[in-house]
User: What shape does this take?
Amino acid sequence: MTIRSRNVDEAEHQGPRRTSGCRHEPAYAGQAIYSPTTLALYDLVVLGLSNPLVWRCPTRRILRLYDQYVTDNHLDVGVGTGWYLDRCRFPSLAPRIGLMDLNPSSLAAASRRIARYRPEQFRADVLKPVAVEAPAFQSIALTYLLHCLPGSIAQKAVVFDNLAPLLQPGGVIFGATLLRIGVVRSTAARVLMRAYNRKGIFSNEADSVQALRAALDQRFRSVEIDIVGCAALFVARDRRD
Ligand SMILES: C[S@@+](CC[C@H](N)C(=O)[O-])C[C@H]1O[C@@H](n2cnc3c(N)ncnc32)[C@H](O)[C@@H]1O
Assistant: This one.
């Protein structure tokens, strides 16, 4: 399957680089953990155990978000194993699906998982402007991506700007992210979040409900946020230009 995108700086200057291989890149740590081995354990550890028991946001609740908002022209960003795309109900039998990730192992795993839909693959760091040679999408999901990205919410929200050219007018952006501030966290959530932040797997020490709402309100006229455990489930539409 062809991988068809790259970041604008690479497109304009020197051709594609192996961005995920560059340890000095700000985005490196948040995607480096996703190897074929960790991805093989991801569904069990994160979706099966951590979501219900640690983060207290059952995976079926996030699946319901997909069932509600996914369209048959959908881009998933930060794809992991592609579990939600495999399980969710698309409005038609043959949806167009794009997969975007910085990590080639995630792209390969998700692409294999939903091979029946013949997904388009885009390898890009969403913290940078993305050059995409493809028509825009009607829905874009960012599930458990923001808490992997470095910086404050205000800084990492640049992803909504970088993805804007890929969203059709009238389209919807939805997803979920784990927060540290403004949510109730179990003891296990506190311990695990601190450990993941130390390792750079998460960067959500400063992430709050208020900052997420401000970043979305600044960019979209319609914003809904539901807090489930320490996850914020968000839906945003009608971009302010
Ligand atoms: C925690 S996983 C989420 C997987 C899936 N969405 C889920 O919820 O099960 C985060 C994904 O985001 C990707 N990722 C992390 N940083 C990224 C970046 N800067 N640009 C693009 N993808 C990134 C990782 O490679 C990984 O596939």
Remarks:
- DSSP finds ten helices and nine strands in the chain.
